[in-house]
């Protein structure tokens, strides 16, 4: 076997986000191929062989790469619409447009979504894609291909909808799949694309959309499918008071009890939002180790409310951060969610004790890895873990007067990314993508957004 090639990063602050929250004021990280080989205080050990690159990271904080746990990439080409709506009205306004997407649109939107996140320190992303119009092409393949080309570690949550307006749901009738078609297509996607290996770049989850757009049978059989195939499960849950009312009227119980009755609580499950959770809901999530994707900006944009994140964490619920679709979080960035999660949660019952800077960083890194089922591989800087990490520049005007680097990263302005590595490969340098042409993506997304708007207007 060829000798490992090493990258050495020195003279940096390090926040490992390990179990002890180990930090180094000035330290080093040694990468061997796609793994973290060692890290610690001071300079790297002498005599390392096959060092192909040394980085002087003076003025930088090194953290694990950010992990995004909830997104809808296709929405990149419908940003800035229905800006003064709550969730249900927003969905009704946008579903007729979304139902006309096709493969070129989805590929371009995925590139835009991934590129914006990667530039801001995301090394692992996910996409919950649930809109599959007839004859629209290979949408899952387009999304996975965009992530592969960008060099970002990726989970596709293969979504589905089978409850349309005629069945009491929100999507228009032409925007949904059949129960049988959705299950078959989801199984095919898992078998074709899911990689269960330690250093997998692509994984697939089973992800029916939400209680108000799917049948009970799709939920139940979706859970059975996921567990037969050995993959994770994802959906939306407890996002709004309207959803709570919908579940009580249709199923005679709240969202959490409904999910439990259909097999949708468990350590292989994570749900987006979970804003309206009572004590028994949180206890059920804690007991079953069901994960939560917390999306503070989207929850605020749609006036959904403030999720009880401090209570979830205290109970032992795994919680990560999510961008959510960019039709409800137009910035499309995750590093700004560190700050927004902290600030918005301090508006809740716990006030200034809700979250601190290190808890916010943990949500965006290790918490996200837990939620995606990849905490053994990513989410913290430890020997043997995959080399997914970010160098944040904190010696500029924006941050230089803040003594503590983690406080600077979370409380300060969005920090510049000098370098971002995924699987030991650098994908961002000085805030620019190394694996894609940002200007070409900008042109493509603008053109596809205009094309979709023309089609939807016909």
TrEMBL record:
Cross-referenced InterPro entries: Amidohydro-rel, Metal-dep_hydrolase_composite, Metal_Hydrolase, MTA/SAH_deaminase
Top EC class for this record: hydrolase
Signal peptide: none
Swiss-Prot/TrEMBL keywords: Hydrolase, Metal-binding, Zinc
Source organism, top-level taxon: Bacteria
EC number(s) from the headed UniProt entry: 3.5.4.32
CDD domains referenced in this protein's UniProt entry, alphabetically: ATZ_TRZ_like (cd01298)
Keyword Protein transport: no
Keyword Hydrolase annotated: yes
Any one GO molecular function term: deaminase activity
Residue ranges constituting the Amidohydrolase-related domain according to the UniProt record: 61-425
Name of the protein in question: 8-oxoguanine deaminase
Organismal lineage: Bacteria, Bacillati, Actinomycetota, Actinomycetes, Kitasatosporales
């Amino acid at each position: 076997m060829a000798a490992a090639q090493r990258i050495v990063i020195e003279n940096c602050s390090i926040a490992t986000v390990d179990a002890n929250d180990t930090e180094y004021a000035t330290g080093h990280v040694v990468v061997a191929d796609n793994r973290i080989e060692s890290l610690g205080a001071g300079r790297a050990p002498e005599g390392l062989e096959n060092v192909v690159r040394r980085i002087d990271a003076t003025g930088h904080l090194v953290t694990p790469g950010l992990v995004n746990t909830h997104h809808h990439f296709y929405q990149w080409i419908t940003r800035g619409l229905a800006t003064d709506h709550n969730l249900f009205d927003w969905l009704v306004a946008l579903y007729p447009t979304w139902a006309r997407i096709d493969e070129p649109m989805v590929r371009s939107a995925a590139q835009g979504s991934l590129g914006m996140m990667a530039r801001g320190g995301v090394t692992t992303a996910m996409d919950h894609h649930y809109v599959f119009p007839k004859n629209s092409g290979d949408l899952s393949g387009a999304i996975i291909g965009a992530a592969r080309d960008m060099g970002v570690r990726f989970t596709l949550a293969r979504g589905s909808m089978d409850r349309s307006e005629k069945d009491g749901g929100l999507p228009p009738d032409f925007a949904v799949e059949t129960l049988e078609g959705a299950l078959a297509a989801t199984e095919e996607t898992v078998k074709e694309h899911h990689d269960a290996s330690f250093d997998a770049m692509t994984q697939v989850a089973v992800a029916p959309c939400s209680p108000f757009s799917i049948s009970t049978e799709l939920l139940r059989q979706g859970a059975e499918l996921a567990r037969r195939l050995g993959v994770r499960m994802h959906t939306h849950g407890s996002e709004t008071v309207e959803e709570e009312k919908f579940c009580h009227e249709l199923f005679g119980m709240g969202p959490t009890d409904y999910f439990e009755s259909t097999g949708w609580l468990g350590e292989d499950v994570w749900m987006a939002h979970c804003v309206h959770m009572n004590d028994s809901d949180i206890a059920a999530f804690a007991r079953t180790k069901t994960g939560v994707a917390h999306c503070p900006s989207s929850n605020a944009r749609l006036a959904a409310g403030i999720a009880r994140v401090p209570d979830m964490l205290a109970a032992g619920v795994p919680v990560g951060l999510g961008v959510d679709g960019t039709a409800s979080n137009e910035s499309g960035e995750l590093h700004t969610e560190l700050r927004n999660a902290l600030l918005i949660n301090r508006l809740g019952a716990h006030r200034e004790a809700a979250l601190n800077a290190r808890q916010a960083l943990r949500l965006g890194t290790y918490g996200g890895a837990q939620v995606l089922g990849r905490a053994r591989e990513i989410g913290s800087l430890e020997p043997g873990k995959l080399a997914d990490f970010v160098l944040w520049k904190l010696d500029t005007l924006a941050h230089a007067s803040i003594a503590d680097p983690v406080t600077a990263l979370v409380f300060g302005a969005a920090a510049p990314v000098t370098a971002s590595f995924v699987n030991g490969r650098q994908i961002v340098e000085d805030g620019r993508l190394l694996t894609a042409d940002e200007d070409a993506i900008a042109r493509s997304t603008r053109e596809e957004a205009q094309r979709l708007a023309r089609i939807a207007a016909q």
